[in-house]
Amino acid sequence: xxxxxxxxxxxxxxxxxxxxxxxxxxxxxxxxxxxxxxxxxxxxxxxxxxxxxxxxxxxxxxxxxxxxxxxxxxxxxxxxxxxxxxxxxxxxxxxxxxxxxxxxxxxxxxxxxxxxxxxxxxxxxxxxxxxxxxxxxxxxxxxxxxxxxxxxxxxxxxxxxxxxxxxxxxxxxxxxxxxxxxxxxxxxxxxxxxxxxxxxxxxxxxxxxxxxxxxxxxxxxxxxxxxxxxxxxxxxxxxxxxxxxxxxxxxxxxxxxxxxxxxxxxxxxxxxxxxxxxxxxxxxxxxxxxxxxxxxxxxxxxxxxxxxxxxxxxxxxxxxxxxxxxxxxxxxxxxxxxxxxxxxxxxxxxxxxxxxxxxxxxxxxxxxxxxxxxxxxxxxxxxxxxxxxxxxxxxxxxxxxxxxxxxxxxxxxxxxxxxxxxxxxxxxxxxxxxxxxxxxxxxxxxxxxxxxxxxxxxxxxxxxxxxxxxxxxxxxxxxxxxxxxxxxxxxxxxxxxx
Length: 498
Ligand SMILES: [Zn+2]
Known about the structure:
Blueprint: H1 2-25, H2 44-50, H3 52-64, H4 66-72, E1 81-91, E2 104-111, E3 117-122, E4 127-133, E5 135-137, E6 145-150, E7 153-162, E8 165-172, E9 176-184, E10 197-205, H5 208-220, H6 229-232, E11 240-243, H7 246-249, E12 274-280, H8 297-314, E13 318-322, H9 332-342, E14 346-353, E15 364-368, H10 375-385, H11 395-398, H12 400-428, E16 439-443, E17 455-462, H13 466-472, H14 475-494
Parallel strand pairs: 1-5, 12-13, 12-14, 14-17, 15-16
Antiparallel strand pairs: 1-2, 1-11, 2-10, 3-4, 4-8, 6-7, 7-8, 9-10, 15-17
Helix pairs in contact: 1-4, 5-12, 8-14, 12-14
């Protein structure tokens, strides 16, 4: 009898699950909410009545078949976690030096078990999305969508875009992007029974460009994790609570969060093939430097770029893309835009320079800097930037509010990364003529001004030097050189933390 009761209980659970799935798969018609609503279901308001009769029928049918069903039923969905609810608050923006005085909006999402979450941002309208693996909802009395008026947040909705993924969407009135995100474990010593794991995301409007960059950064690194315990000290939450039972989350908690900060999701080791955008310098009406015997830089760079792409693709670990597939003219800022379209992990611009001194020879690898490492580097950058007069994307003009913060937030890291790439390439090419002569240099190349993609520029040699020019015209030389550059790129991409 006990066994039967247990079987019945299991069946009831299963049935309940079936109904839930049916409810969730009913696509909402006429929602006023956003393009994402194909994933999001808002059945709360009418499900009770409309589904009453079908539910009874289903119940009866299912009852008759219960033992059979139980015997043949597949394993239940592997749902181990539940969203319990969420709440909002305000938190001080401690980085006052970045010029943004306003406080950040803090979103706290509670789950029953340790979540594996990914964050991403969407535009038109602005949205913050939190997807959590193996997560269902334990909030049947919480409407599946609703209006909110808190900070930048105007509405929320939740659902399961895939069977085993819980999704929570916050619609935003302005381009507010995460400035911190972390996970807190349950607070066991807390008498107010705040018992779940907490995903904490602080968002702040730093302008359109910052939002776009944060969006791109989250595509590459959706697990944003920081060790910002200091910020947590300024806790000031729970003006708005959204959960099944206000008792679950609603207890005022005017105290500090405690516990260890944990990553939201471990980075995957190598989730896909790396994407490297190879930029063949110059092209079309812009020949670039002209060699001693009339060699055009644009032809040398195109040939070398194709060879480099070939070597990289041959590794099976990289998808190499070119900014130009023929002899066409592309503005410098468009070259960056192409790399961004590719969602490139790395941007490598290939050049062969000229110098007033015919004796100048050798290989240089450049990364971006406001201050040139030497006079010649400054001259080279100036000449390369002449390819068009736009001089690259000027963030300060596009979005003055974002410009300062951006440099701090993203470009610094890109510049560090670029330095690693440059060093890796120089190590590999040291045995080529002049490969150990010039080293890693810095200058204000417009084409390297991508704030979110590590970017380097390789000057393979001087066309104004007789020997360099002769080498660069030889396919065998270009093939050997680009193979080494390919090795260096791969070494960089596979190095730790990538
Ligand atoms: Zn050039």
